[in-house]
Design a protein that fits this description.
Layout lengths: L5 E3 L10 E2 L28 E21 L1 H4 L2 E7 L8 E6 L7 E18 L6 E7 L2 E2 L14 E8 L5 E21 H16 L4 E4 L9 E11 L2 E3 L2 E11 L2
Antiparallel strand pairs: 1-8, 1-11, 2-3, 3-6, 3-7, 4-5, 4-6, 9-10, 10-14, 11-12, 12-14, 13-14
């Protein structure tokens, strides 16, 4: 484990109405990409295709995250591009990603500022995508404490037994991932300047992506919601511990 944990919620793509070159027939509107819902999708009607975003003014970003997709199955790649003039004369390629599976993934890059952003898709078949975010990551300044478990699973569904309590089998509809996230000795200044604004703006009420190790485990990206609240008890001097609970569906 070499990467510091990340909270991903800031999204340049939410600064503007997404404009897709084409959209497949059905409930596949491009705006589905930015609603943080894993069960709404955008799908193009033809390939190659792209989704363009005009942020209104130059804004920065340093990560791309995709959650809920079939890029690998459809044989498609995703290309992130940015521009200062709506791709008339200034057209910059920032990344080309060809997933090796259909799991969520994150790609981080040096902070880049632009007004216009777009994602371009190339491949033989049209993919479907649920969530695409390009924004500024929130990096926790400490690693997770011992006891954090990214592999835990709790099946949800129907669990059947006979009248004597003997198991008859189960219907597993999903598996939940739930963890208490704990960080030791964070500074008061970081908590006040970074954590509290993020909590108030997004983390307390909306789904967000948690990357526990964005370097060595880029596909272990969890779409979570915060439960109950958080605690930040003082430890010593100008330091405090941060604790909060999250849960989501395990993939």
């Amino acid at each position: 484990m070499t990467g510091l944990p990340l909270a991903l919620f800031d999204n340049r793509f939410a600064d503007a109405t997404p404009v897709a070159s084409t959209t497949a027939v059905g409930d596949f509107a491009a705006v589905n990409l930015i609603d943080w819902r894993p069960y709404t999708w955008w799908k193009p009607a033809a390939m190659p295709d792209q989704v363009l975003f005009d942020c209104g003014s130059p804004k920065s970003a340093d990560y791309l995250a995709v959650y809920g997709h079939n890029l690998f199955t459809s044989g498609a790649d995703i290309r992130l591009r940015y521009s200062s003039d709506n791709f008339v004369g200034d057209d910059n390629l920032l990344a080309v990603i060809t997933p090796a599976d259909d799991l969520p993934f994150i790609y981080t890059f040096a902070s880049t500022t632009a007004r216009y952003w777009k994602v371009v898709f190339n491949g033989p078949s049209a993919p479907s995508l649920a969530i695409v975010a390009v924004g500024n990551k929130l990096e926790f300044p400490r690693r997770l404490r011992a006891g954090f478990d990214p592999l835990s699973r709790a099946p949800g569904g129907k669990f059947n037994r006979n009248m004597k309590g003997q198991p008859l089998g189960s219907v597993v509809e999903y598996e939940q991932w739930s963890q208490r996230i704990r960080f030791r000795n964070l500074t008061w200044s970081w908590l006040r300047a970074t954590w509290i604004p993020a909590w108030t703006q997004h983390l307390r009420a909306k789904p967000w992506l948690f990357a526990w190790d964005p370097v060595d485990h880029t596909d272990e990206l969890f779409l979570v919601e915060s439960e109950k609240g958080y605690k930040a008890p003082i430890t010593r001097g100008s330091f405090a511990d941060l604790q909060f609970q999250v849960s989501g569906v395990a993939l």
